[in-house]
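User:
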Amino acid sequence: MRILIAEDDPVIAIGLTARLRALGHEPLGPASDGQHAVELAREDPPDLYLFDVDMPRLDGLAAARALSEEGLRRPIVVITGVDDPDLIDRSIATGVSAYLTKPIDDRALDAGIRLAASRHEEFRALEAEVTKAQQALVDRKLIEQAKGILITATGVSEPEAFRRIQRAARDRNLRLVEVARRIVDQQALLDGR
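Assistant: Predicted structure:
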């Protein structure tokens, strides 16, 4: 996995780089502050962000938020030397997938990375399901609108209007929603819209 490191302490950054390599990952950076991390992510988007929270110019949480807003959302593992419950809440609100406190051992680092990647994939799958459900609802509304047009224009029953749409889809090798869209578009043309 390609992991972008952002850590303002050069000694810790070197250590994280070596540890990521030992865990089989490809470390990118390290960036010395959040703004530099954002620039590096824009140039060559990684698979995961490993950001220190407390950095100059732009902290790790603000950098992660900025990247997410730019469409560069990735799993985020934050590391910090501060034990602050408010910081944990801010991390959760930012979409952080794993939160590690310094000093970090290899097991915790590996677990944090794996957890973050897994949670990110689950989130992406849920987003895809929501998008699919939203599209199904839009399609269903269009089919209902087309049935209404057929009922009004021909006086057929609702089940018969649906059968006609199904038959047209089958005969023309189209999806139901494509036939419905054509019916609605033709009605709009006839109405002069």
